[in-house]
């Protein structure tokens, strides 16, 4: 019998509802640095993107900012964000229930965020014990979504081939990176009116649907193995 599929979850916007807090902190910090930015810009254009990628795009539009000032800005922004995450963060609706239903699967978190932010987010929402140390940060791997190498790195350390992995991600950068890594991808599309699920990915609109989809995938694997 084949072992259960390995489930690789994004963190922000998939497991925890951190993106509004992140967008708010980015808005105040970047605007103070001379890079006009609104919270809606993050949610509409940059959701899931690396912070320095966002900065580079804004500098092309509004002019460069002194690198030392940017370093100070980022440190202050992340410190403020971590404080807010610890006290204000909640889990995405249905995430706790989905993880409980899927407890027989090996699971990891694959995020473009720093590892300390992942740990803070999971601890604040009561999800830390589900994943233990199976946390794969782009800052640790030095590889950011949509590059598929972050997903391949996580799969390798989990001991699974790409075709044995299912990625659950709400952001298009993650969906595209996981597809490029050769993995099955479930797109948690919480904004279906404005966001299209890429070809090749499976769309769900909420986390309550996830266990059923995983069940169907496992059934398909079993039938294929006995065909």
Automatic annotation (TrEMBL):
The keyword Nucleus does not apply. Transmembrane segments: none annotated. Keywords: Hydrolase, Magnesium, Metal-binding. InterPro entries: Beta-PGM-like, HAD-like_sf, HAD-SF_hydro_IA, HAD_sf, PGP-like_dom2. The keyword Hydrolase applies. Its cofactor is Mg(2+). One of its GO terms (molecular function) is metal ion binding. SUPFAM superfamilies: HAD-like. Belongs to the HAD-like hydrolase superfamily. CbbY/CbbZ/Gph/YieH family. This is HAD superfamily hydrolase (TIGR01509 family)/HAD superfamily hydrolase (TIGR01549 family). It comes from Halomonas ventosae. The lineage of its organism: Bacteria, Pseudomonadati, Pseudomonadota, Gammaproteobacteria, Oceanospirillales.
């Amino acid at each position: 019998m084949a072992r259960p599929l390995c489930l690789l979850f994004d963190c922000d916007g998939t497991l925890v509802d951190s993106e509004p807090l992140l967008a708010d902190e980015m808005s105040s910090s970047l605007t103070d640095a001379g890079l006009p930015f609104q919270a809606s810009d993050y949610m509409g254009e940059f959701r899931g993107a690396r912070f320095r990628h966002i900065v580079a795009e804004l500098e092309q539009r509004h002019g460069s900012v002194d690198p030392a000032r940017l370093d100070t800005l980022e440190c202050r922004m992340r410190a403020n964000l971590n404080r807010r995450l610890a006290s204000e963060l909640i889990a995405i609706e249905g995430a706790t229930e989905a993880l409980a239903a899927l407890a027989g699967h090996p699971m990891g978190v694959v995020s473009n965020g720093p590892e300390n932010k992942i740990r803070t987010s999971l601890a604040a929402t009561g999800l830390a014990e589900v994943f233990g140390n199976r946390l794969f940060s782009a800052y640790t791997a030095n590889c950011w979504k949509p590059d598929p190498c972050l997903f391949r790195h996580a799969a390798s350390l989990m001991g699974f081939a790409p075709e044995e992995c299912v990625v659950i991600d709400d952001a298009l950068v993650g969906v595209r990176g996981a597809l490029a890594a050769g993995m099955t991808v479930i797109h948690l599309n919480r904004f279906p009116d404005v966001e299209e699920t890429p070809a090749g990915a499976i769309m769900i609109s909420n986390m309550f649907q996830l266990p059923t989809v995983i069940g169907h995938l496992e059934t398909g694997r079993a039938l294929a193995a006995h065909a």
